[in-house]
Automatic annotation (TrEMBL):
This is Expansin. GO terms for cellular component: extracellular region; membrane. Residues 159-238 form the Expansin-like CBD domain. One of its GO terms (biological process) is plant-type cell wall organization. It is a peripheral membrane protein. It comes from the Eukaryota. Residues 26-149 form the Expansin-like EG45 domain. Causes loosening and extension of plant cell walls by disrupting non-covalent bonding between cellulose microfibrils and matrix glucans. No enzymatic activity has been found.
């Protein structure tokens, strides 16, 4: 075979391998570890039926994974995994910080680059015995099934406007947000942390509309979500992403 044709054939083979690998990894089970969250009051699970998880830095990805849904199951541990390896679906709601004072293999479960989940009580006991200190798990990304619309929780001041976006369906992972007052055009917001988005705007006294874009590319606009008399500390509901 001509050397040019050999080179072309090799590139085509590599392309096919890459495509196959991407397809195989999409929605496939990945290996991690999990522990029971120390959040005793379940505050991080608020709004998600008690099924939530804190993610290690590698999985949390600087907050961009906040809101994503993961199916998790305990595997390969006869003593701690529940019979039949049942799975639960959790929402990523928090960051599991590293502990540089402890080894990644003993106590520093969330140290980089470990893939680790701190599961809420409801989620952990749905797949493993409560007495377990740490369990081997498999996880995969799944679509988020939500009740009601996307929620917009407002905070800030006259010089700083912030919105926490939650209860997001489909991908669950928000990558872009715009806000619009009734006297303004659409204004892009910047990610503060997780799914907190902010802007240095004074929108007090204006009705508020929001445009939300997911990692999968879908965008939805919710008009006049908050009335002109909205207040900081209040939560309003908009449209929901549908399959």
């Amino acid at each position: 075979m001509d050397s040019g044709l050999q080179h072309l054939a090799l590139r085509f083979f590599i392309l096919l391998c890459c495509l196959f690998q991407a397809t195989a990894e999409d929605g496939s089970w990945k290996i991690a570890t999990a522990t029971l969250s120390r959040d005793k009051d379940g505050s991080s699970s608020s709004g998600y039926g008690g099924y939530s998880a804190g993610l290690s830095g590698k999985l949390f990805n600087r907050g961009s994974s906040c809101g994503a849904c993961l199916e998790v199951r305990c595997v390969n541990h006869i003593r701690w995994c529940l019979q039949g390896s049942p799975s639960v679906v959790v929402t990523a709601t928090d960051f599991c910080p590293p502990n540089s004072g402890l080894s990644s293999d003993y106590g520093g479960w969330c140290n980089f680059p470990k893939e680790h989940l701190e599961l809420s009580h409801a989620a952990f006991t749905g797949i493993a015995e409560t007495r377990a200190e740490i369990i081997p798990v498999q996880y995969r990304r799944v679509k988020c099934g939500r009740r009601g619309g996307v929620r917009f929780s407002l905070n800030g001041s006259s010089h700083f406007f912030q919105v926490l976006i939650s209860n997001v369906g489909l991908d669950g992972e928000v990558v872009g947000v715009k806000v619009k007052g009734h006297t303004t055009a659409w204004i892009p917001m910047a990610r503060n942390w997780g799914q907190n988005w902010h802007s240095s705007l004074d929108l007090i006294g204006q009705s508020l509309s929001f445009e939300v874009t997911l990692i999968g590319g879908k965008t939805i606009a919710s008009y006049d979500v908050a009335p002109p008399y909205w207040r900081f500390g209040m939560t309003y509901q908009g449209k929901q992403f549908l399959s």
